[in-house]
Amino acid sequence: MDTEADLFYRLLPKVELHAHLNGSVSSETMETLIKRKPHLNIEHSMTAIRRGQRRSLDECFQVFKVIHQLVDSEEDILMVAKAVIQEFAADGVKYLELRSTPREVTETGLTKQRYIETVLEAIRQCKQEEVDIDVRFIVAVDRRHGPLVAMETVKLAEDFLLSSDGVVVGLDLSGDPTVGHGKDLLSALEKAKNCGLKLALHLSEVPSQREESELLLNLPPDRIGHGTFLHPEFGGSDSLVDKVCKQNIPIEMCLTSNVKGQTVPSYDKHHFQYWYKRGHPCVLCTDDKGVFCTDLSQEYQLAASTFGLTQEAVWMLSQQAIGYTFAPEPIKQRLEKKWAELKQQILQ
Ligand SMILES: CNc1ncnc2c1ncn2[C@@H]1O[C@H](COP(=O)(O)O)[C@@H](O)[C@H]1O
Ligand SMILES: [Zn+2]
Fold first, then answer.
1. 211 is known as an active-site residue
2. What is the pLDDT of residues 13-62, one digit of tens each?
3. Atom number in ligand 1 closest to CA 261
4. What's the catalysed reaction (predicted)?
């Protein structure tokens, strides 16, 4: 049963800005997928990192490969996307920017175009069913696939930016950070930016990316994912910190993901502390709520208990995230209004 403190975090209206679709699949949905494809011999323990468990980042990427085998048709994507949206809504998320890498699967006839259309269909159906959440989509580029695929993905994202009635808002750069170099993807990212897609880039998720981060920060991105190794105490540099601060680029912080993926040794050593203390824009996110067995309420609660945040401070954190969304101004105003209406009820 929820204690009173748990309840505060659940009721707190929240904004989720960093959620990978296939990393966000809940254990319930995973059960269904595993049953649908018994021939794959996949066990639940292969798709999630449970309480107290840790994995290397490399092992996390193996987990995504397994999940991709389970989610490989339009039918799967529609089911998974609808479930993920409903789960975020049930957790009190009022605005969600979901991201996913379009995939092509010959055996099931899935194309990248249909992949995106299917996610958009899931978003449309949730809206029609009046699920209490506003959902936007960020098209993801997997850095592992190199510059040509990145450029193709940008073109696809650009088409949808123009035709999705405001649902597609941006481009993400993700995938195994130890593979490839950002300099090869720079022209694709520049093109994306020039056509009006917002950029949410995974940056300095591992220590070896200083040079790449210097380069990508010149774009500049509209938001940074993780940014774990940007600051000098973690092997980054003053110049990186200066760039991020001068351009006031919000950082998406995913505490449990970083601890379970072992890029951060423990919650209390998380770089959230460094940036939050400086008053820099920070937004708490889940990254992969399915794989890391968490949800956004829990991430807020963990941040509060680890760093001693008051309920008022937690409220501010969730409210300020509205300003870091890629939503147009009228949507931001609508969210601000919602927060203002709920404040008296929830914050005692
Ligand atoms: C843990 N830290 C992380 N760092 C970098 N990329 C990550 C990630 N977590 C997830 N992804 C990216 O998201 C994909 C799965 O969702 P989609 O198939 O796109 O919906 C992964 O294959 C990887 O490219
Ligand atoms: Zn991520």
1. no
2. 999 999 999 999 999 999 999 999 999 999 989 999 998 898 999 999 99
3. 1
4. N(6)-methyl-AMP + H2O + H(+) = IMP + methylamine
Determine the distance separating the centroid of ligand 1 and the alpha carbon of 291, expressed in angstroms. Answer: 10
Find the catalytic residue in 16, 97, 158, 205: 205
* ipTM of the complex in this document: 1.00
CA distance 284 to 298: 10
CA geometry: angle 240, 245, 248, nearest 5 deg? 125
* Neighbour count for residue 181 (Cβ, 10 Å): 12
Question: Per-residue pLDDT tens for 162-188?
Answer: 999 999 999 999 999 999 999 999 999
Which residue's alpha carbon is at the smallest distance from atom 3 of ligand 1?
175
The tens digit of pLDDT for each residue in 217-271 reads 999 999 999 999 999 989 899 999 999 999 999 999 999 999 999 999 999 999 9
Closest CA to 255 of 240, 267, 241: 267
Handedness of CA 265, 267, 273, 276 (dihedral sign): positive
